[in-house]
Specification:
The chain is α+β, with helices and mostly antiparallel strands. It has helices at about 5-25, 55-65, 70-85, 95-100; strands at about 25-30, 45-55, 90-95, 105-110. The protein has a 4-stranded mixed beta sheet. It contains 4 helices and 4 strands; from the N terminus they run αββααβαβ. Helix content is about 40%, strand content about 15%.
Length: about 120
């Protein structure tokens, strides 16, 4: 469950597929946009998407230059925002650090197919 319409979730899922492929890791929707408000849609400032990398992969990116990880976060966030129309805050995180500091819900992105978005207007197979 999230604060987004099925179309918005579909676009976010689809936009995350090449990210998952490129990094061989699953992006996650986290934070306040993950939970609908009492009125049905979430009250969120931005949409938090996180990519948690193994220590080895994170350290390899960080070794290129200290600015690479924040740059990729901004660039990938802009890519996701341009496709979805949502205010995306994308960050690449060290998995061990993220798992120690953050214990909220995580919704995996980039794994669903069109079958997840059929709705209830189709005949049963």
């Amino acid at each position: 469950m999230s604060a987004f319409s099925p179309r918005q979730m579909f676009l976010l899922d689809e936009a995350c597929k090449p990210i998952a492929d490129a990094f061989d890791a699953t992006p996650y929707l986290v934070g306040t946009a993950l939970v609908p408000s009492a009125g049905g849609r979430g009250d969120y400032r931005d949409v938090d998407v996180r990519l948690m990398l193994t220590p080895e992969r994170y350290d390899a990116l960080h070794a290129v230059t200290a600015d690479l990880i924040p740059f990729l976060g901004i660039a990938i966030g802009q890519h996701l925002a341009s496709i979805t129309g949502l205010p995306i805050d994308f960050q690449i995180q060290h998995a061990d650090v993220a798992n120690t500091r953050h214990h909220g819900n995580r919704n995996p992105l980039g794994l669903r197919t069109l079958a997840n978005y059929r709705g209830d207007a189709h005949p049963e197979a």
